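Quick one: structure tokens for this chain, please?
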Amino acid sequence: MSVFMSIPTGVLGGIAGVLQVISLLSLVLLLFKVAQFYLHRQWLLKALQQFPSPPSHWLFGHNREFQKNEELQQFLKWIDKFPCAFPRWLWGSNAFLSVYDPDYMKTILGRSDPKSIDAYGFLRPWIGNGLLLLNGQAWFQHRRMLTPAFHYDILKPYVGLMANSVQIMLDKWEKRITQDPYLELFEHVSLMTLDTIMKCAFSYQHSIQLGRNSHSYIQAVGNLSNLVFSRMRNAFYQNDVIYRMTPDGRSAHHACQIAHKHTDQVIKQRKAHLQNEIELENIRKKRHLDFLDILLCAKMENGSSLSNEDLRAEVDTFMFEGHDTTASGISWILYALAMHPKHQQSCREEIQSLLGDRAIITWDHLDQMPYTTMCIKEALRIYPPVPIVSRVLSKPITFPDGRSLPKGITVSLNFHTLHHNPKVWSNPEVFDPFRFAPGAVQHSHAFLPFSGGSRNCIGKQFAMNELKVAVALTLLRFELSPDPTRVPIPISRVVLRSLNGIYLHVKKLH
């Protein structure tokens, strides 16, 4: 009490005045934010008015309908009522149009709208401004620069490297199943696909599957995939400053450090090789350069080399995309074949007749397994590795049915729902490889496991080759069946994952 009495009255008055000013400014800011919220919501309501949607709360959007980890399943429940598209409200002033109609897909993918910053911006601390996140002229330059890395002359020798990585994984399985015949696929396959991309795209000379150093990178990628998705869906996590102070923000920062440490080491080792004049001369003599060679030797239009920041962004992007999407694809394909033993056996017989007992697969074999390829495509239809991508409309758009959207609306291309849309695919939940039999007719944009248009997956041929190699060699050595006690639950993350893992019973063939 005596302390306050000793403070001069003028000082107390000054403090009170400052507090009043702060209170007034806070009130003004609050009113501004409320007005901003209201005006943006009204704009969204008007822009999306031609597209009916399920009832939503003015503040919480559809969050009550979309329970945690059930987003894919909820979309499928609403297909009949909204067969082309519907607005999905995340919260009161954040909505996008979710699209799962092939004509809508064709209209959007035929344009050059940029990636959504709201959706993809949260990936930037992890993978930087690489090919996935770039837009406009910068994207075009990088795409043109990297396209030669996926020329078929480059891809041909990769088949042997892929096969080597798969065989190492299968050798580990053979030892493992003597103790427990049930395996969780995703981590094993992720290590194998990381091993493959390291050897093929980054000229790595050793197998990372035989050590423990890369497990932390795989785990970091899994954590980041979950954290990025949860951040997109949380209104309070949109601001970078606030997010960094949360437990999730700190976890994401730590996971990014682990991922960057891995890619920095890859770049450092390759740069060290390039200091060797003999190695540099060997690279110059190559008719086609691999991915990392292209990055390190690249010259932009102004004659400058890629900055260290751009270099690491592309390495981070392809390190992630080159192993995580293919790991998802392979894991779900093997699960689908385990669930359908007759199709699995037909694939096995085709592969045995092609390869015999040698288990040596080459580039020429990849086009000689039509039934296996049909099964792979059907599994990719049911379990697309990248379930959703998004765009922001750079100009107004009108769809074939006459409905339209203005510039600035975010459009989510939901490939998973497209692939399960009964208007597009009859009995979509049935595994039927003959949908992809030679001569079968389908809409050009009904099947999009690697997206479409100018921004389709640059590595789709690389990925398909790896899927074929992994499936063929696995079926030659093992019989796969599901674990009835652990049925996988598909969840939408950056790639399609399972909430509870993908467990299979693995039996060695004699």
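The mean pLDDT is 91.
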